[in-house]
Amino acid sequence: MAAVVATSDLRRPAVFAVETVAVALCYYAAGRLGLMRELVVEGAVFTPVWPPSGVAVACLLIFGLRSAAGIALGALLVILSLTAFRPVVLCTVAGNTAAPVCAYLMLRKVGFRTDLARLRDGLALVFLGALTAMLLSSTTGVGLLVAIGKLATDSFWHVWLAWWVGDAMGVLLVTPVLLLLPALRRPPPLARWKEAAGLTLITLGVVPLATHSPVSLLFLVYPLLVWAALRFRLAGSMLCALFTSVLATIAATDEVGPFAGLTRVEVMIKLQAFNGTMALTALLLSAVITEQRNTRRSVERACQELVEVLEHLTAGEPEHGRPVKETDRLHPRDNPRSP
Asked: How far apart are CA 111 and CA 120, in angstroms?
């Protein structure tokens, strides 16, 4: 028994170390992907969508607070890939770690469920996990740039807004997709695969046209989001939204299509407004549809149970509604009229 306990005690630090390294590598990989496309606002470089914030919130919701160490390590690796180590770097690491931890604590406080099967879960992720919690990282990061003299004071709000929206978009677009992975089940039937293939082919044709056409055709994306949400719920709508956001970000950073001829600030505003409305539409519409389907199934199960109870209660009644006499309910041995 002592040997078993000792082995268990040794495994816990090993498992924690493996999880920490895995989370850090995922965070770092997401950061490198995010840095592939950048915008410049008031002389500061930022990413329109910061995927590591979504990775961090998803890891905390799946694995718990023990993921915070991996998030901090991943944030440090991303920063060190851009600049040399200095003590002020630790402040940025602290802000990038504290923001998703704050999101996790607030979501737990309101009873957030990772399946996003309720409208309240979608609203909590939007307003608490994305918009509120990410204020911490943007304020810390931009405030640090102003404090060390790398950013002018009059440019604070423009850069702060870009940083905040980028972190929030990472949570809205990446976190729901990652939360779906542990819930993957057996594949759907062949008929659903055919519909999914059709939706995928149409999306691959319409989205590049909408995001790169000189004519403003971004509105063509929303029917696809509605179709994906109605038929494939959160998995379909969020994957469609994420793919569209990637192509829209590429078009914005290249200043082509609907983003051509705009100033840097106008490109940022148009891109973030599009990404935000698209993510909200996909997330909240999917949550509403899933909640309504679950409610309908609950009502159907309750009706079925009620029918079974009524059938059980009426199973002993005579035919044609003939009333049962008191003497008929007695056992033949106890009936005085029986021979």
From this structure: 9
Q: Are residues 176 and 225 in the same domain?
A: no
The alpha carbon of residue 9 and the mean position of all alpha carbons in its chain are separated, in whole angstroms, by 34
pLDDT 10s digits, 100-118: 999 999 999 999 998 888 8
Q: Which of 41-45, 268-272, 317-321 has the highest mean pLDDT?
A: 268-272
The verdict on 49 and 121 lying in the same domain is yes
For residue 162, the domain's CATH number is 1.10.1760
**How would you class 151 by CB atoms within 10 Å of its CB: exposed for 0-12, middle for 13-18, buried for 19 or more?**
buried
pLDDT averaged over the chain? Answer: 84
Q: How far apart are CA 201 and CA 196, in angstroms?
A: 9
Co-location of 52 and 80 in the same domain: yes
Q: Cα-atom radius of gyration of the chain, to the nearest Å?
A: 28
Indicate if the pLDDT at residue 72 is higher than 70: yes
Q: Are residues 249 and 301 in the same domain?
A: yes
70 and 205 inside one domain: no
pTM assigned to the model: 0.82
108 and 132 share one domain: yes
Please report whether residue 339 resides in a domain: no
In the chain, the amino acid numbered 267 is V
Cα 129 to Cα 57, 172, 205, 243, 333: the distances in Å are: 8, 8, 33, 21, 73
**331 against 308, higher pLDDT:** 308
Q: Residues 109-117: contacts with CB within 8 Å, 24+ apart?
A: 112/61, 114/61, 114/62, 114/179, 114/182, 114/183, 115/179, 115/183, 116/176, 116/179, 116/234, 116/283, 116/286, 116/287, 116/290, 117/287, 117/290, 117/291, 117/294
Task: Count how many domains the chain has.
Answer: 2
